[in-house]
What does this fold into?
Amino acid sequence: MPSRKDIKNILVIGSGPIVIGQASEFDYSGTQACKALKEEGYRVVLLNSNPASVMTDHDIADATYIEPMTLDVAEKIVEKEKIDAYLPTVGGQMALNFAMQFSKNGLDKKYNFQIIGAKPEVIEIAENRQKFREQLVKSDIDCPLGFCTSSYKVAIEQISQCSFPVILRSSFTLGGKGSGIAYNMEEFTNIFLSCLVSSETGEVSVEEYLRGWKEFEMEIVRDSHDNCIVVCAIENINPMGIHTGDSITVAPTMTLTDKEYQRMRNLAFKVMRVIGVDTGGANVQFALQPSTGRIVVIEMNPRVSRSSALASKATGFPIASVAAKIAVGMTLDEIQNNVINKTAAFEPTLDYVVTKIPRFDLEKFSDIPGTLGPSMKSVGEVMAIARSFPESIQKAIRSLGKGYLGLTSQINITQSNEKIRAEILKNLKSATPVQIFYIADAFRYDISLDEVQSITMWDRWFLTQIQKIVLAEINLHKYGINYLERNLSHYKSLGYADKQLAIVLDIDEDAVLQLRHKHSIYPIYSRVDSCAGEYSTSTNYLYSTYILNSNEFSFCESNIKKDKKVIIIGSGPNCIGQGIEFDYACVHAAMTAKASGYQSIIINCNPETVSTDHEVSNKLYLAPLFPEDVLDIIHNEKTSDSLLGVIVCYGGQTAINLADDISKFCNILGTNLQSIHIAEDRKLFYNLLDDLSIRHPKTYTLNSVHDIKNMHTILFPVIARPSYVIGGKSIIKINNIDTLTDYLVTNSSILDSLLIEEFVEDAIEIEIDAISDGSSTYVAGIIEHVERSGIHSGDSTSVLPYFSLDSSIIDQAVICANSIAVALSIIGLFNVQFLIKNDVLYVIEVNPRASRTVPFIIKSTSVPIVKIATKVLLGSKLKDFGLDNKRAEFKGYSVKKPVFSNAIIGSKIIYGPEMYSTGEEMIFEKELNDALNKAKIDKNGVIKSQ
It folds into this structure.
């Protein structure tokens, strides 16, 4: 049936600021959904407080409200915009909770609008653990044994009839907040009370802990004619007990028999029907007992889920777009799938292996355990595609941006074998982010597969694959470089990086590269086509793979064109300090290059983001942001001699750190490499400031740890600043000589680029974002931080424009920014940070790239500075836009308020020079006090009571 004509104005609510458990996957889903609804002729109204998201761009919805996400605000929007329908299924848990509030408070009836995609009663059954359990039991669907209650007294009575361990979960929560596994009564009490506090409804589910069971999830879609499809089946490599967001996952499923798969598929459809999700997408999670084949339903999400973005990128099937169209009455056979130019009424089939690995920043949170459980802790994820699991898993590992080359050893080989074995066995017992590395180490040190399986409870198939990778490494150690030369294709098909092989053989990486060139061993680029080649497809969504059999899949599908082109390096996985604000810049750079007549090419490995939607650019490579992988792609694209250059200034520190390697083979568009190094190296930058007679905090030069004994002139406190870091990593305030000594010993390897500077206490901090074309500058925004010096800019409440400073000091800051831009020959966006104390201006940092405040400035001024800066990179001048040597104008005040995930993972908020916030929200008002009041912040940065 065609889309509904009885509704016109549809409200979409986004997921708000990024927190652990609800990240940029919903920016991607929401953006897709808004576009899909507009395609069908609907007027889309959006509420989302996140300025960093593509979703809140003015052209995504017809009316966009970047406002606090409260029921009062939503009600005013519903009334003003005359909303006919609300779609709650594309904004994560936030959007579902709004649907329940609308219904509970009778707002849908008061304003006569419908809730589409998932009705409130359906959401209630799916999200309420007790009602969900009752519905499953009533429908003869197997689920774990257990009970639900909101009474601690009842819980104590009933737990006495159960056997430990048990798993506890709360209803209507985000990322498994408060959940845990209890092995005794004391743990049960603590976790139960935590779940009770976390639950939106004050209800807790207690179930048998299915220890050692395998976990699966299915992304499914159902239309109003009861057509149901499985878009993607995903297998968790980690056994039950770890939140799916923290598990390593793989698609398609590797260890299910066809009979088990069909049973699970039929169960998924049955669950969707009995719960009542009649239009849209859903996610159903299962557990399977390996020894008996028993399958139980764990839970369902009656919405586009966290895994939907992964499933969409894995298959090429646009789940959120299809779900949105189904919600307004269309059926699967009426919806076009642009990947294969067929209808959406088909189930994707994969002839490749997709692996997702979560990215953790647990080292920032010293007060929480590093073990994983049912409460989510990861801040991002990476995805890799290859023709085999070993190749896919090793590509995913080196995509993490944590310095891993692949399944490398974690062992200190100077220990005795007895201590090594003890360390491995200890680390096998704990589910941690590095457990997979210790599994590999177990095989290196002759611990049997049976013993590893009994300890970890990982499926034997996955352990065998890891063992295969390790055995290849052992053989390489044993037989040397001649053996590698004869078997190089085999090693590349196992996912080994050149550098990884070089380290094993203790040779230079170039030697391995020369072997590859000698034998013409290069990756093949294949398309993600949704249907394993059954239908022809023209999509330019590509992954690399190495093929052993030259007769199979040996042709390259990258379709190299002679059109002039640019490559944009993405920012990789979300992490604290580098989130979707950089993906935002990459998306707009790609679209601008495409609109300017260039073939725009994105390289990224983050499945959550809008940049890895293959429709954003002319060509997308889903690949690790690792020198070898990026250079192979550049080599592939350069064969047509039409590559203008590579843009590294939008992908944050990850992209900047690749500039050295890229510049050896290709032109860097924008600021030159030497200037990037001067800006990024703290010591070189302060030397430049001295040459320009620009004031900066006093510094102390320490060439070795021993120099500190002679540094009697050090005035504490000081700030230790490493170079080339993300989000102020390892930057700390130091108050005494002993702490400084300990810090220098710990960081002795980076002394060459480490700066020790005086801490300017109680100073005002400002930052300038600007564009330079080499001769003139446009000042896009001058931001003043509410909190005083010592707090990372990403964790500070920021106001645009500045509010407490005289124009004379601001004029000085602008002059300094101009001088730095000219001295560094900056082309494109840059950011300069200043301190002001007693009317004295100090420069502390420059970033020769897009900063995290760029989307905030764009949403505040409506000046598309990424678009303009990209055109400058491509040769335009600021005068072409009438912006040469000008400053942005403002008609009010915007406040950027940091949002922390500490409460979700049970950690304390730490304010300091290292960044801890995971997201941000934006408030705009004409008057400063009104903006601060709406943000619930006073002028001293103190959070007011809610």
User: Anything to note?
Assistant: The longest helix spans residues 460-493. The chain has a mean pLDDT of 93.
